[in-house]
Design a protein that fits this description.
The protein is built from three helices and seven strands. By secondary structure, the protein is an alpha+beta fold. The chain has one domain. Strands 1, 2, 3, 4, 5, 6 and 7 form a seven-stranded mixed β-sheet that branches. A hairpin with a 7-residue loop joins β6 and β7. The relative contact order is 0.19.
């Protein structure tokens, strides 16, 4: 991570005054407080040591629900926003993908 990269936080989101999907872009590093928001806002759709998904579906792609997702790659310092993924996955769901 370079010095110009920003770790997105709950304080930053509150200050931005916008929806989660406008504040976070796929690949954004997020602080632990954002991960805890994902974990605590609703019972999670998926909760593992490396993946947390908000419990309410955002949409449906290919007939399956998608969830706002953060994950932590092995050895990484920060969680990353993965976008809106199928349950248990951290690659963003795309129309036509199986």
């Amino acid at each position: 991570m370079s010095a110009t990269d920003t770790v997105k936080s709950m304080a930053g989101w509150n200050a931005a005054g916008c929806d989660l999907g406008k504040y976070l872009q796929v690949g954004d590093a997020v602080a632990d407080d954002v991960m805890y928001y994902f974990l605590e806002v609703l019972p999670p759709a998926c909760y593992r040591s490396d993946l947390v998904q908000i419990g309410e579906p955002n949409s449906h792609v290919n007939g399956k629900a998608t969830y706002a997702t953060v994950y932590k790659p092995v050895g990484a310092r920060n969680w990353l926003f993965a976008g809106y993924c199928h349950r248990g996955q951290w690659s963003e769901a795309k129309d036509g993908a199986k």
